[in-house]
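Changelog-linked ticket: cobalamin example.
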Amino acid sequence: MKVHLINPSSVSFGTAVITPRWQYVLAGATPRSFGDPILVDETLFQMDPERIQPGDAVGIGIHTANALRGYEIGKLARERGAYVIFGGIHATLYPEEARELGGAHAVVKGDGDIVWAKALADCRDGVPKPIYAGGQIEASDFVQARWDLVPRNRYMWASVQTVRGCPKHCSFCSVWRTDGQRPRQRTSDVVIEEIVQLRRLGFRFVALADDNFYPVTLTDLNLATQQKNTTRLNELKSLRAERFELMARLAQLPEDMVFFTQITMEAAEDIEFLNAMKAARIKGALVGVESVCRCEKRRCHLRAIRHLEPLSRDGGLQSLGKRARTESTNHRGSSSHPALADSASASPEAVLGPSGNVRRGNPFANSGSMGQLLQSRFHLEAFEFYQVKPWPAGVCSHFENLSPDVRRYRHRHR
Ligand code: B12
Ligand code: SF4
């Protein structure tokens, strides 16, 4: 029985930006008795169905955006007589859908690190179970990724996870439901070991593939102090100290290394943390700002600016090599504020496209005002912006063919 791990994508370019980490972790979790798994990342090359033989096990990892292609692959693999196992964030939330539409014999919910070996053994014995509950395992149980299997010269960035889970509960986000609100932080030893391995393989750019690299805010610490909750305070302090330890060690790595990650706005108030990020050469960060009210657009802009300034000034955050763009409907007209009176108007850029109920974009780039201001004054060259917005009718009509779960989900988020 051969093990295949397939990362679905409808378009393939031969090269890709970031390694799909789940494949290398699942490869690490595959018992050696099954041999090396066959890794297919369709962002590089489409899968070759001929390679799948009856009795093989085919693992498919999906998030919502690539679920449809994942389902095509699942059905195809099942037709060829293989066992089909789905996992990943979308399958965790909608296991029934993977069975109904993707030909799944089994679905792994949650972390695959431990439960994957059991699912494979059951497939080998011909008795796969419909659901394997992977749960939210402890950081000490995270499996080491098999980077020895990564194809050379295909990816720009490797991805290393330092913490799973996020203490927040943003309305548009799936992370706190699937990965939990308790930050599960890996020790700096294992993270550094992994990064050194990747550097030896030639990777200079490493994405810290964390839900939230800044899991303890100053507000959290103040609250615990005010509440005289010593246990909580100590817990938070220790998590925070581990972050600083990791960043200090990142700072000692070869100077040509560059990192980027994802944080919350609150990091902007934490100058000590920003300085540590800067020293660690974390040169980019994805920051989300949730704007739930259209009337609040100006206030939202101003609040965002206030927070973003220290991120670039003290954090020294720079370009990720890409500028997020925005739609024209929201956040227009920000130039009415005196601070922006000098702003030139530019044509609105196309939106990145709907992704669930969340539209991602950079409202500042919209009128040419905020974007220019941020770039010229604060030297902030790249950031991402999430805003909650109802789907325009008809945009996602292809979802109508999906299960009632998806329709309910969409309806709830309208
Ligand atoms: C790092 C990251 C990125 C990076 C790198 C992506 C990459 N190529 O690796 C960047 C910034 C580029 C990115 C982009 C996007 N991302 Co992103 N990203 C993440 C993040 C923070 C971590 C992913 C990661 O590497 N985790 C580490 C691995 C080891 O964990 P894992 O993937 O969950 O896999 C484990 C389990 O799920 C399971 N598993 C996974 N697959 C399989 C398969 C099988 C067979 C089995 C058994 C188990 C299994 O086992 C694994 C080990 O435990 C997640 C948040 C999250 N918690 O998942 C969001 C997340 C996946 N991203 C999300 C989104 C929306 C996007 C974008 C679509 C954003 C956009 N609008 O452009 C793009 C899509 C890019 C793409 N084509 O993949 C959403 C997806 C939501 C959803 N419902 O699907 C998430 C969940 C964030 C969120 N806030 O909700 N992302
Ligand atoms: S801070 Fe980020 S990861 Fe955490 S719940 Fe909000 S969007 Fe999700």
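Closing comment: Example verified and attached. The longest strand covers residues 155-160. The first helix runs from residue 21 to 29.
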